[in-house]
Design brief:
It holds the Pfam family p450. It is found in: Membrane. By secondary structure, this protein is an alpha+beta fold. It is 56% helix and 7% strand. It has 2 domains: 2-129 and 376-423, Uridine Diphospho-n-acetylenolpyruvylglucosamine Reductase, domain 2 (2-Layer Sandwich); 141-371 and 445-463, Cytochrome P450 (Cytochrome p450, Orthogonal Bundle). The protein is built from 19 helices and 7 strands. The protein has a 5-stranded mixed β-sheet. It is globular and about 75 Å long.
Length: 465
């Protein structure tokens, strides 16, 4: 009898909770859709989740679990392969696009879409991310110049090799294990500091201080905006304020140097280029703008390349046959090199850059597809947009899920497998491989990041285990 009563109570509790949650979801959906009038009938399928929280718990849990694709998979299984779904994320009605054609449209269509990062993320990134498209294109051309194209990259290949080889030697000499991500992040950030701030700002202690602050900022980018002591967002805001002070001092000092002509013989770095930049009418960027741009670039490049370096090493060591093939490829390349030359040259890399032939480059692309360093990008609808037969209302956020595209078996056979050979004579549909985004805001540092990864692999495969 007692067992029966417990069974009834449990059943009623489960049914009651199910009813309450179902009712709350309906109320939440009604709250956001009632203002749309007839347009609500043309919204994509989906689930707005619970009031206030929406689907944030599912979104965050997916990336903290062993199955980061679980949330998108649940939408596909419930609503079919529409490539577009409605939900509520970061407190805003959001449309998730997760097919090649929908992602490309959202990322490349500057008329219908603008950047739409969550407010907490915008605060940590700074103002530069949301400038007009015209100003962004001009500043992008300027800021991408030092790290794009063979001629520009050749200026930094020696410093990258110097930092990477010194780091590898140091780690190999230790009689203890190291945490690889922590150490490679230090090396990658030292390179970034050299490119953006010049050799005089690459002091190890200073670089480590900035790196620790940027680590805190990065951890707050996709956190819930809970601003109380101990929370990720609170620490991120605190770190951002300290970084602002440091970067403003750097800008002031560099401007003073240039006014005194103390920098005449220096190689122009990103900070110099920003200070010297002029509009068509001769107006220059103010100190705030220069500091914001510098902060954004340091933030964007702080951990991303280090994550890529870590994951490419993990992927190779989990696939020993590929590791040995890649090592043999580098040995053969070394045999072809002029014995009087030491290290890689940009000409040598250019000669090797036929993706259908070079295994190491295929390994890098496959790592980018499989790991997805940037899992998603954010936009916002400037107007009511029709996509795949559905309406994205004006003002709604759009999350372009790059990971969903790369992990879809309709785009890549057996997507969970690490298989560099898939890139041999690969003819994927447009938008099926977008690790650096698309459109005019395509990541400007992609060539430089690949160069760093290639140099790491080259020297590691030849000289270390």
């Amino acid at each position: 009898m007692v067992t029966y009563i417990l069974y009834l109570v449990t059943t009623f509790l489960v049914l009651g909770c199910g009813f309450v949650f179902g009712f709350l979801r309906k109320v939440n959906e009604w709250m956001y859709l009632r203002k749309l009038g007839e347009k609500r009938h043309f919204l994509p399928p989906g689930d707005m989740g619970l009031p206030w929280a929406g689907k944030m718990l599912s979104f965050l849990w997916a990336f903290r679990s062993s199955d980061p694709d679980s949330m998108i998979s649940s939408f596909i299984s419930r609503y079919g392969r529409t490539g577009i779904y409605k939900t509520l994320l970061f407190g805003k009605p959001t449309v998730i696009v997760c097919a090649p054609e929908t992602c490309i449209r959202a990322l490349a269509d500057e008329k219908d879409f603008k950047l739409g990062y969550p407010e907490t993320t915008q605060e940590l990134i700074g103002r530069f991310h949301d400038v007009s498209n015209a100003k962004h294109k001009r500043l992008r051309r300027l800021t991408a110049a030092p790290i794009t194209g063979s001629e520009s990259l050749s200026r930094y290949i020696d410093i990258v090799q110097e930092v990477i080889t010194a780091s590898l030697d140091e780690w190999a000499s230790l009689d203890r294990p190291i945490e690889f991500f922590t150490e490679i992040k230090k090396a990658a950030f030292k390179v970034v500091m050299h490119v953006f701030l010049g050799s005089e700002e690459t002091d190890d202690a200073f670089a480590e201080k900035l790196s620790l602050l940027y680590t805190d900022v990065n951890q707050g980018l996709n956190a819930l905006g809970l601003n109380f002591p101990g929370s990720s967002f609170y620490r991120a805001r605190k770190a951002k304020k300290e970084l602002e002070k440091i970067i403003h001092k750097l800008v002031d000092r560099r401007i003073s140097m240039r006014e005194k002509n103390d920098a005449v013989d220096r190689t122009m770095d990103l900070l110099d280029l920003l200070i010297a930049e002029e509009d068509e009418d001769g107006s220059k960027l103010d100190k705030e703008e220069i500091a914001d741009i510098l902060h954004l670039y340091l933030l964007a490049s702080h951990e991303s390349t280090a994550y890529a370096m870590m994951w490419v090493m993990i992927c190779l060591h989990e696939n020993p046959k590929t590791l040995e093939k890649a090592r043999e490829e580098q040995v053969q390349m070394l045999k072809r090199r002029d014995p009087t030359k030491k290290g890689l040259s940009i000409q040598e890399i250019k000669q090797m850059s036929y993706l259908s032939k070079i295994l190491v480059l295929k390994v890098i692309d496959e790592m980018l597809r499989r790991v997805n360093i940037a899992a998603a990008l954010y936009r916002e609808a400037n107007t009511d947009v029709t996509m795949n037969g559905y309406i994205i209302p004006k003002g709604w956020k759009v999350l372009a899920s790059l990971r969903a595209v790369h992990m879809d078996p309709e785009n890549h056979i057996e997507p969970k497998e690490f298989n560099p050979s898939r890139w041999e004579n690969q003819r994927s549909k447009a938008g099926a491989f977008i690790p650096f985004g698309a459109g005019s805001r395509f990541c400007p540092g992609n060539e430089f990041a690949k160069l760093e990864i290639f140099i790491l692999l080259h020297h590691f495969l030849l000289n270390y285990e």
